[in-house]
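Structure in, sequence out. Go:
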C-alpha cells in the first residue's frame, strides 16, 4: 500500500487515491478465477481501513481505467533491508542472585599481636597423603612423602573442619597468604584445639602430665615436644590436613597446589611464666609454610608415580575379570 494522495474523480470532485501492489502471478490467477479477484479487493479495502483508520463501504465498483493518474508512481515494498542480527541496547537486566535486604556484616578477623616473651618452637610431623618417602627437609622439619596431583578446579581459602565440638577443633587464623610475585610460597597459621591448651594430653606419660599440670600454664618443654610430635600435617595437592589424636581433622584448601619440598612447619607455644610471674594464657599456634607447586611439577610427579602403568595388573587376575563383568 502506498501513501494517500489527493485527486479528483470524473465529476471533478475531490477524492483520495492510493496504489496497491500485488504479485503478477496472483493478478493472472485472479483474472481467471473470479472469487480470488473478489477476495483480493476485499482484502485491499480492509487493509486500507486498518492502516489509515477510516471506514470504507464494502460495496465497490471497478472503474474501466487501468491507473488513476497520469504517470505510474514507482513503489518500494521495503525501503531498507532488515538486518539478520540487531543489537539490543539499554535493556534492564534482572539480577540472577538474591538481593539482601540489609547490608552484610563484615567477617570478624582475629587480630594477631606479637608478644615480647620468648617462645618455644617445635616442628610437628608433616607428611602427604600419598605415603611415598622423600628425603628433603628444611628448618628442622621432617618432611615425608610427595604430594599427589590435586584437581584442576580452583578452591577457596576457607578452612573446612569436620562438624563436632569446638573444644576439639583446630582454628584457622586469618587466611592463606601468598608470598612473592609470581607466587613462590604459601603460608597460614592454625590455633591448636583448646583441649590441648587447657589440660595435659592424655596420651603423654604420667610424669610429663604431672610436670605440665604443675607449670600453671599447661606447657612445658617436654609437653610441647610431645605435642609437636603428635600433630599431623598432610599435603594432598591443593589441600592441607591438620590432625591430632582425639581432635577433629581440619582441611585448609589452598588457591594453588603446594609441595612438601623445603616446607616449614613450626609449633609456637607461649612461655610458661611471663615477666609478671603469671601465666601468659596465649594459645599455641602451628605455622605452616609450603612451596608453590607448578603444573609441570604435578605432571612430572604423576608420570613418576605411574598409577595406570600398562602391564601392572595381570589379565589373569580376578580383579581384572570383575572389572570386565
Amino acid at each position: 500500500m502506498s501513501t494517500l494522495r489527493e485527486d479528483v474523480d470524473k465529476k471533478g470532485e475531490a477524492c483520495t487515491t492510493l496504489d496497491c501492489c500485488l504479485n503478477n502471478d496472483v493478478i493472472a490467477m485472479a483474472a481467471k478465477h473470479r472469487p480470488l479477484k473478489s477476495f483480493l479487493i476485499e482484502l485491499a479495502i480492509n487493509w486500507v481501513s486498518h492502516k489509515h483508520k477510516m471506514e470504507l463501504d464494502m460495496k465497490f465498483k471497478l472503474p474501466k481505467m487501468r491507473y488513476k493518474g497520469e504517470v505510474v508512481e514507482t513503489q518500494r515494498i521495503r525501503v531498507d533491508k532488515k538486518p539478520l542480527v540487531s543489537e539490543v541496547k539499554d535493556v534492564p537486566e534482572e539480577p540472577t542472585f538474591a538481593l539482601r535486604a540489609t547490608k552484610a556484616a563484615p567477617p570478624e578477623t582475629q587480630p594477631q599481636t606479637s608478644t615480647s616473651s620468648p617462645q618455644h618452637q617445635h616442628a610437628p610431623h608433616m607428611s602427604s597423603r600419598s605415603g611415598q618417602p622423600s628425603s628433603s627437609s628444611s628448618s628442622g622439619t621432617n618432611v615425608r612423602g610427595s604430594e599427589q596431583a590435586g584437581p584442576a578446579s580452583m578452591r577457596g581459602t576457607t578452612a573446612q573442619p569436620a562438624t563436632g565440638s569446638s573444644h576439639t577443633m583446630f582454628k584457622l587464623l586469618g587466611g592463606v597468604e601468598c608470598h612473592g610475585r609470581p607466587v613462590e610460597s604459601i603460608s597460614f597459621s592454625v590455633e591448636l584445639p583448646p583441649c590441648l591448651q587447657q589440660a595435659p594430653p592424655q596420651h603423654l606419660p604420667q610424669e610429663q602430665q604431672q610436670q605440665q599440670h604443675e607449670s600453671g600454664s599447661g606447657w612445658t618443654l617436654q609437653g610441647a615436644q610431645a605435642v609437636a610430635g603428635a600433630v599431623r600435617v598432610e599435603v594432598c595437592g591443593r589441600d592441607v590436613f591438620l590432625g591430632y589424636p582425639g581432635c577433629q581433622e581440619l582441611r585448609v584448601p589452598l588457591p594453588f597446589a603446594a609441595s612438601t619440598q623445603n616446607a616449614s612447619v613450626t609449633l609456637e607455644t607461649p612461655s610458661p611464666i611471663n615477666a609478671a610471674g603469671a601465666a601468659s594464657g596465649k594459645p599455641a599456634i602451628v605455622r605452616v609454610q609450603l612451596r608453590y607447586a607448578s603444573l609441570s611439577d604435578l605432571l612430572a610427579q604423576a608420570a613418576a608415580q605411574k598409577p595406570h602403568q600398562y602391564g601392572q595388573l595381570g589379565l589373569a587376575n580376578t580383579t581384572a575379570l570383575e572389572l570386565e563383568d
